Amino acid sequence: MQQSIYLAGPDVFWPNAVALGEAKKALCQQYGFTGHFPLDNELDLSALAPYEAGIAIYQANIGLMNQCHIIIANMTPFRGPSMDVGTAFEMGYMTAQNKAVWGYTLDGRLYSDRIEGEQTDRDGFSIEAFQMADNLMMVGATGQLGGLLTEALSEDMDNHLRLFERVLQQIQKSR
């Protein structure tokens, strides 16, 4: 049976989101997996209020994750110094089901360096300084049944897909 991979990340917000999702799914197929991208959900949201539409998307993505054996999460910082919060939820959801969690980031800096590079921020709050690419809970999730690849690359589609393919290669080696 071919294993299914949920393709998580802020990729759904990229201007070329559909093309990126299709390229990732094609790479999954090359490595013997079936990729599921959140935008695969064919939802008619036209008659729904914005809140209802959001809940419908949430439920559809939960359904996709329930079908998958593995998650690959794009943990590249998004709209701030840390990864996308929706992606963090998806990683936690899959971890709670004891499914393999793999991640990658195109930002090779440590989380603490992206914040301030100090032990506290300007408001006096402590900053995690565990020499990790992101929050310790997210990095920890990748360490149980999966892994994390970190590389300092520009966020263009070619670099994104190269690093994504390296994750697929690691998954294949770990089987």
From TrEMBL:
Transmembrane segments: none
Protein origin, superkingdom: Bacteria
Signal peptide: none
Gene3D superfamilies: 3.40.50.450
Pfam families: Nuc_deoxyrib_tr
InterPro entries attached to this UniProt entry: 2'-dNMP_N-hydrolase, Nucleoside_deoxyribTrfase
GO molecular function annotations of the record: 5-hydroxymethyl-dUMP N-hydrolase activity; transferase activity
Keywords tagged on the record: Transferase
One GO process term, biological-process aspect: deoxyribonucleoside monophosphate catabolic process
Entry protein name: Nucleoside 2-deoxyribosyltransferase
Origin species: Amphritea atlantica
